């Protein structure tokens, strides 16, 4: 339904720009666009007009779903191209420590909370193990697109603290996509009958295959870029990302894993060759996906005291666990106190990655609509908080550096 796509895109872009004017991530406005158009506001206040303009079930529109799927795959794939492998090699100890703690501790915290969440909040098709694992993944991720934007705005992207944050985020998210793929396989094929071990073996094979063919794929893209057909490099990247998602989806793994691995195959591209594709993804496709996610939200569920209580518990555990984990990993990796605090602040932003995981959980029947809403609101809250937290911690870092510099004079 083209009118639905047009309305969703206009609302998402408009509210996204408005959010930016107030110093908030565009994601906030884009997600709120879906909330306003969905059952929480427009569908509640004026249901007849909502049905005439958006259709009877806009959240599940095939056209919106197709554009959102493309947006998710490109978001994840292009985020993976930001991985700076040379920096990873230079700061391997620090990145490894931050990533390991930043992933494992929130994952365990999410599993712990998931074990306490009442069964009524589980999805209809959810087993306990799938629910707790997926909630753990939701608490463990960070979001490269949101973090990158914040670092650019604060002029931190070229500094070591910015590069450490991005590198740690990429490695952490790689672990999250692998676990998400395992949960997806568990939900779709089950653990009985021998299919699940075969699916996990296929996942390991995909990871090994990605590592082996990476040099040849990059060499091919380099040649294409240098040829007279260099303008088709972006098209080749899109094909690789979609093919990667389709391949892992066919193996009963989550399509986002294939998109992420395809982005690793592509690697960083110099000369801004991917800039037009990134621009279209962030200004058109991503807003449609985020607004579509907002259409699934019914914030009237927050009127239920039990939902509100568990939402507050998940939010608190997510923020504290991620901050403490990244801080601990950074300190063990040799960073000073306020630098470690900056890592904890930056990696707390969940952004669109969190919403992707929430959407996967809802689509697989693992998350109930209430838990889906809580996870999406977690993404929203942490994305808003990350900027001010980073400003505070980096200013303290600069103050400490200035004091130490004066003492050496």
Q: Count every helix, treating DSSP H or I runs of 4 or more residues as helices.
A: 18
- Per CATH, which architecture of the domain at 63-314 and 352-377? Up-down Bundle
Q: The biggest beta sheet, please?
A: none
CATH class assignment of the domain at 63-314 and 352-377: Mainly Alpha
SS elements, strand count: 0
Question: Strand percentage, roughly?
Answer: under 5%
- The percent range for helix content is over 70%
GO molecular function: antiporter activity
Subcellular location: Membrane
Keywords: Antiport, Ion transport, Membrane, Sodium, Sodium transport, Transmembrane, Transmembrane helix, Transport
Family: Belongs to the monovalent cation:proton antiporter 2 (CPA2) transporter (TC 2.A.37) family.
Task: Write a structural description.
With 409 residues, the protein is mainly α. The protein has a domain at 63-314 and 352-377: Na+/H+ antiporter like fold. Helices cover 79% and strands 0% of the residues. The chain has 18 helices and no strands. It has helices spanning 2-21, 26-37, 42-45, 47-54, 62-80, 85-90, 92-116, 128-140, 144-153, 160-189, 195-226, 233-250, 255-266, 275-295, 305-332, 337-347, 351-363, 369-408. The longest helix is centred in the C-terminal third of the chain and has 40 residues, at 369-408. The chain is globular. The chain starts with a helix and ends with a helix. The model has no long low-confidence stretch (mean pLDDT 86).
